[in-house]
Design a protein that fits this description.
Blueprint (H helix, E strand, L loop, with lengths): L1 E2 L2 H8 L8 E9 L9 H10 L9 E4 L9 E4 L9 E10 L1 H12 L10 E9 L4 E8 L5 H11 L24 H14 L1 H22 L21 E2 L5 E9 H11 L3 H19 L8 E8 L13 E8 L6 H22 L3 H8 L2 H13 L12 E6 L7 E2 L2 E9 L5 E2 L1 E8 L2 E9 L7 H28 L1
Helix pairs in contact: 1-10, 6-9, 6-10, 7-8, 7-12, 8-9, 8-12
């Protein structure tokens, strides 16, 4: 039995029928890279042979009676891998966009909590001969860093690698604790760890003071970092429904690095600039571009910085302005780069622990009540959006990966939506490419493909500008 950290539990407590807290990704696999043949059955054999390397695949969540404390992970005594791996045969000759529609339908449903919180779907029948593999895992069990660790256990670096050695002792589930045991354990934790919660409160106070000094001008230096609820309203902001749609696209990592080096920015600045250019074009087609910058949340890993080392999710958020002007891509990139520096300074002033600490002291029952009340009263339709969108940059594998012998060609990630924010953009570097995933609330945006295609066009425009700058520099010398 292992208790969830406050942050991990928060992702469970904030889930509603419209606010799904799973993270997912669609991979495209080349089945021709293995001489043994690739099939759903071989995939299932591969996953099952590695279960001992991924213990979270066989544990489920149990709530504590009366929500006395955060839930716990326990072994699932009825674990059956067939309840997690599914084979979907698409109509022969299906396109990737047709597959994307099926993915959106799957992501529109939250996962049942009576079994471990992960699923995989194997799709064949695609016109290009590839195989689609959709993975889904609850955010309470994975973040960007731990997701990379999980991939290392499930994937190989060569096509026909041998299966890992089986465990010396076969797996047997531990006994599921009784409700009375759960309640007693929670009460004991409260007695044993009062100082831990007091420390969290103290750190929150220190973080608020530091932010006040920087963001609100208390003291000598003042940052111009954006604040929540300063976002303009857009078509993808409002009360969520459970409907989800997805789109994806791919650009070359070398192109992003060229733009970064040419204009003295960071790769993440280039990602943000391309998102801004794509969203500007998208909003123009919807009837108007807001007269002030969008406000985006950029998740930041604090695995190496946070004081509380327990739990899976060790992440914070940096708020960044995403200007939709000027028209010139290079000037836009420079503006975003300068703004990101202020946002990073404000995030550093907040400290790596603040979001973790807030989750640690929040009563679970109150957390769930506020989340559901917000949606029931439709508060997101009545007040300015807390932010416009979430943009994540997730590190991916720098080398080729294989699963059951099939080479991974692309990994398009999809992060969750939160109430009032119906658009999530996630990029993952992957073997010399940057894979771009778009997840939208389908009742806000029915067709997300213009955003995915617009992002690639924006990268092309920025790359062209970088090459022209390089050519001009060569000519002048």
């Amino acid at each position: 039995m292992q208790r969830l950290s406050g942050m991990d539990a928060a992702f469970l407590n904030m889930e509603t029928p419209a606010q799904h807290m799973h993270v997912s990704g669609i991979m495209f696999l080349d089945p021709s890279t293995t001489e043994k043949g690739f099939s759903f059955e071989r995939l299932a054999e591969t996953v099952e042979a590695r279960m001992h390397l991924i213990p979270q695949f066989r544990r489920k969540v149990l709530r504590v009676p009366f929500d006395l404390d955060d839930p716990v992970w326990v072994d699932d005594p009825d674990f059956d891998i067939s309840g997690h791996l599914f084979h979907v045969s698409l109509p022969e000759g299906s396109t990737r966009r047709f597959l994307a529609d099926r993915v959106g339908e799957i992501l529109s449903r939250p996962m049942e909590r009576d079994r471990p919180l992960w699923r995989m779907w194997y799709f064949d029948g695609l016109e290009d001969g590839t195989v689609g593999l959709l993975s889904m895992m609850h955010h309470s069990e994975v973040d960007g860093i731990t997701g990379s660790d999980l991939m290392a256990s499930l994937f190989d670096t060569e096509p026909d690698a041998a299966q890992p050695e089986p465990p010396s002792v076969p797996w047997h589930p531990e006994r599921t604790p009784y409700k009375l045991e759960l309640a007693a354990s929670a009460a004991a934790d409260w007695v044993r760890h009062p100082l831990r919660r007091a420390s969290a409160v103290s750190r929150i106070g220190s973080s608020v003071l530091n932010m006040g000094r920087g963001v609100f001008g208390i003291g000598r230096d003042r940052l111009s970092a954006p604040l929540p609820f300063s976002a303009p309203r857009t078509p993808f902001n409002g009360t969520l429904t459970g409907e989800r749609v997805v789109a994806f696209s791919q650009a070359g990592l070398d192109d992003l690095k060229l733009v970064k080096s040419t204009f003295g920015a960071k790769v993440n600045d280039v990602v943000l600039a391309a998102c801004a250019m794509s969203l500007r074009s998208f909003l123009e087609s919807w009837g108007g571009v807001p007269d002030k910058p969008l406000l985006v949340a950029v998740p930041v890993s604090v695995h190496s910085k946070a004081s509380e080392r327990g739990g899976v999710n060790q992440v914070s958020n940096m708020f960044v302005r995403l200007p939709l002007e000027p028209d010139d891509p290079v000037e836009l990139l420079k503006t975003i780069h300068a703004g990101s520096l202020d946002s990073k300074a404000a995030h550093d002033a907040m400290g790596p622990d603040m979001i973790q600490d807030l989750a640690q002291i929040a009563p679970p029952r109150l957390f769930r009540f506020l989340t559901r009340a917000t949606a029931f009263v439709r508060i997101p339709d009545l007040v300015p959006p807390v932010l416009n969108t979430i943009i994540s940059n997730v590190p991916g594998p720098p080398m080729p990966l294989y699963i059951a012998g099939a080479r991974v060609l692309a990994i398009y990630p999809f992060g969750p939506l939160i109430e009032s924010v119906g658009l999530n953009l996630t990029v993952m570097s992957n073997m010399g490419n940057v894979d771009f995933g778009v997840l939208c609330c389908g009742d806000m945006i029915a067709d997300p493909w213009p955003i995915a295609d617009g992002w690639v066009k924006a990268i092309d425009d920025l790359t062209k500008a970088a090459r022209e700058r390089g050519d001009a520099g060569t000519g002048s010398s």
